[in-house]
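Hi there,

I know you've been waiting on this one. I reran it after we fixed the sequence typo, so this is the corrected version. Both the input and the resulting structure follow.
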Amino acid sequence: MRASVTACSDGAVHRLWPPSPVSPGQASPDVVDDTELERIYDYPPDLDRAWVQSNFVTSTDGAVSVDGRSAGLSSPGDKRILALGRDLADVILVGWGTARAEHYRGVKPTEVRVARRARLGLSEVPPIAVVTARGSVTPDSHLVRDTVAPPLVITTLQAPADRRSALVDAGVDVIVAGETEVDLQVALTELSARGLRRVNCEGGPRLLGSLIAADLVDQMCLTVSPVLAGGSSGRAAVGTDGVPIALTLASALTDEGFLMLRYRRDRS
């Protein structure tokens, strides 16, 4: 990831703009390496509650998918940031619709991931926590069968009791948070009680919309893809109307025309 870098005196903000082709006699653009990326994207220290970071990729005109999936909007640089988000997290939070559409499985323990997480004092891989009011995850799902870390299912009393029991028997940690709709504040409190406070939300739009409505998003990582998608794809967050929440731009990176933005919620 190459770009010119300007940082605030406290090191909190980095602005990286796309370099032009290097002419003879000009210096090469700076390289933002993994060590610097890890510092930029790391979670606050000594968390005493669940702290939620959300990740999304959109086209320049705001589409969140191409042919129903986000892969058509991504890039190697975007995937690098997404993988880093997983490496730094205690848990991956995702809605059932996204997990199903994107064919989620458990996070894989790559050599780089395991080494980084061991250095940071984290478990080998973060578990996946799926939000589904009806308990739609089944015991034979890849999320349950193809994983190193047993997943969590965040659901409601509306989910059939026998389905919840079957998931528990399959090794799933089932969290009941609400009667008919998932109470995300309760869910995050339960995650925090389990020591899962570095929460990396990977969508989808309804889950992000619900988190925004409850004012539970602490950081938004948004990759803007240099394409115009058109079509009927939805936006990054959908849900009930509410009061807009102000954010502060914490960093911006570019890579091959993709813009990786990171915004933080100021709760001071």
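Quick highlight: Residues 2-22 have pLDDT under 50 and may be disordered.

Best,
R. S.
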